[in-house]
Design goal:
This protein is 2% helix and 44% strand. It contains 1 helix and 23 strands. The model has no long low-confidence stretch (mean pLDDT 97). It is flat, with a radius of gyration of 20 Å. It folds into 2 domains: 148 residues, Immunoglobulin-like (Sandwich), CATH 2.60.40.420; 126 residues, Immunoglobulin-like (Sandwich). It is mainly β and 295 residues long. Strands 4, 6, 7, 10, 12 and 13 form a 6-stranded mixed β-sheet that branches. The structure holds copper (II) ion (CU). The site of copper (II) ion has 7 residues, from loops.
Amino acid sequence: MITDRAFADDGSLAYPALDPTLRGRPGVREPCLGGVLGDVILVNGGPWPVHEVDAARYRLRVLNGSNARHYVLEAVGADGRRLDLVQIGADQGLLAAPVTHHRLPVAPAERYDVVVDFSHAEVGSLVRVVNRLGTGRTRDVMAFRVVRKARDDSRVPRTLSTDLPAWRRSDAVRVRDCAFRAGRMRGGHGWLIGGLPFDPARSDVTVDLGDVEVWRLIADVHHPVHLHLVGFRVLSRNGRPPLAHDAGLKDTVSPRPGEAVEIITRFDGCRGRYLFHCHNAEHEDMGMMANLEVV
Ligand SMILES: [Cu+2]
């Protein structure tokens, strides 16, 4: 899990809450309205760790647990060359087939399973994992030190899964627009879905159990949109085919600024009330959640 944290001079955690007791008014102060970015990158709770590996393939499970920070991950060897990030899984399980990335975008709450082959790295060398979107020290995420040669008879199968749901647009009973945009909440800055801040007592969307729907997620800035209850497939981005990292069964997708992302899913499972929300923790705190009622 990759996170980032900000620390005050005395070493305590720094968080620019409007209400320091975190019990009253939600939200954060300027200039953090877009989300709180830390200046220390942590992986599994440790700052910039170095992990020892054999010169072999490793399966890495990546979760972006940051409040608001987006990553575009690269693995760079000592010779400056990038190692392939072979994606085998998305938020909700294996892909149908592996997808090779040189750079992997990871929005808050997204999960990726990737295989990295360290067998071509020299023993003793470092493979650095960097964030292309970071600057200064936040560009570094972690590193792997290749410590020994190893026999490796593993391989990545060409077919990983044959039972991914393949909902078609023609299966959908409706297309629903959901706009994720800045606005006003309680007289201050807010982040809204469909023009409204979250109200726990209100049902924003009602769907019939078993229905397939297409949702158009429309964003002003990056919003990692997360649905509870269901996994979905990404159908399009601004009318164009999905990106390489949109493959598989997902429950979080991040429309880019000004983008409309279409997703498709079947609302099955159990009737009841579920949340969908932006997974930028500060956006969520400042109103960007909504209730989905499955009836
Ligand atoms: Cu957001």
